[in-house]
Structures are given as structure tokens and as C-alpha cells.
Amino acid sequence: MKRYLIFVILILFIGCNREFNKTNGVINIVDNSDKEEVVWIDNFDGTEVDRNNWTFEIGNGVNGWGNNELQYYTAENSEVRDGKLIITAKKESKNGYDYTSSRLKTQGKFSFTYGTVEVRAKLPKGQGIWPAIWMLGEDIDIDTVGWPNCGEIDIMELLGQEPNKIHGTIHGPGYYGAGGKSASYTLSSGDFSDDFHIFKIVWDITSIKWYVDNTLYHTETTNDVSNWVFDHDFFILLNVAVGGNWPGEPDDNITSFPQTMEIDYVKVTTYK
Ligand SMILES: [Ca+2]
Known about the structure:
binds calcium ion; 6% helix; globular; disordered N terminus; seven-stranded antiparallel sheet; ten-stranded mixed sheet; Jelly Rolls; 2 domains
């Protein structure tokens, strides 16, 4: 009987979102879950990309979006179908480029400071394919700020030639490009194109933590960099790049096209 009681108490203690306090020897359970608040979500339930949430970036940017990327971004390479956003990278000629794809952002429509960002996605693969789920400081376009002073939080990046390994990184002044503060997570079997996984960051005033399927694999704190630039509004970006300095070019013999990134939802949660 005593063992049974201990078991019951243990079960109560590992419940989520609950607080415990003890009054006169009686344990009281306080449900805290109502303090969690979804402040922004896109479930991709409609039939097209919701332009209230997202802006498409078009073209090849400056110097291939700063990375010598090879793709030309269009709005047509994105569709919403079966509850998902599908970004398709294609091998096709467009305006002088050999590949097309899409890049979407919430800049000017939604930005926030601190919170949990959760994205459920299935990723593309192949040499030179570079999907990313990431954030930039909303102040990037202010001349006196710019990149990397605005800060960059890479929730998930993957190099298609290593399809079982994702990377979580921050970039800022003194730690950008290859000097970004980064860690990776590798699946024990299969790769990220086989099935959906949940990519998450928990960002607060002292730290940013990266998770895959609720497994913590990377933490950066205010003490880990000399110049912490993550105390202001950030917006979210989703894209599939082709080529670029980090992944290198696709190999026509081994990279198959089209490649897709499917996103079930993007959810931002804070605590009241
Ligand atoms: Ca969905």
C-alpha cells in the first residue's frame, strides 16, 4: 500500500504545467497551463499561403543572399496543401539562374521578443540542398544596425549531403559566418526526409535552447558570447536554398530534383 501511494505521488509530480505547494502536510496541485499562451500560429490549413502572415522574398538577393546561393526565389515554388506548407526546390531556368525555390518571412507582419518557437517539418535532402528555419532581428534594415548586429537565430539548418544531421546556431557581432555559435544533432537511424520532426527553440532573457523532438542538444547563454544581441524583436524565415558557400553546389549525378520541405505548423508560445 505504501509503495502504491509513493507511485501515485510520483505520477502526480511528473505531470506537466503543474505547481505543487504543501499546506499543513497536504500537497496542493496548481494547474499552470493557462499561463502558456500561443501568440502566433500558422497551421497551413487553407489553400494558399496566408499573406497576412508571410511575405515572399523574390530573386537571388545580393551575392546569392550573401552566400553565393544558386536559386532564384519565387512565390510559385510554395503551396499550401493537406494542412502543410510545401516549399519545392526545382532544377529549372529562371531569369539566368538554374534553380528555383522559395523563401518566406514574417518581417513587418509578426515579430516578437522571447518565447518558444516550434516547427514541425519534414526536410529535403541531397548534395547542395540547404533548408532553413530561422530568425533575424527586425532591425536588420536599419542602416546603423544591419547584419550581424541585428542577430540571427538559426532554429534548424541542414546540409542535404548530411540528411541525418541538423544544426542550431546563433550569429552576432564577433560570431558570424563560420564563427557562429553552433551545435548539431544527428538522428540515430534514418534521416530527416523520412518523417516529420519537431524543431524548437526556447528563448528567454538569459539563454536560447535548441531541441529536436523535445531533446535538448544546444544551449547558449548571455555568458557564452561577449555581445549578446537577442533582447529585441525577431521575425521568422523559412526557405530551401540550393548551393551556396556552406553546402556547396548540387551534383547532377547524385542530387535529385525536385526537393521539398513540408511544414505542418509554425507556433510561437510565451508565458503570460
Ligand atoms: Ca498543419
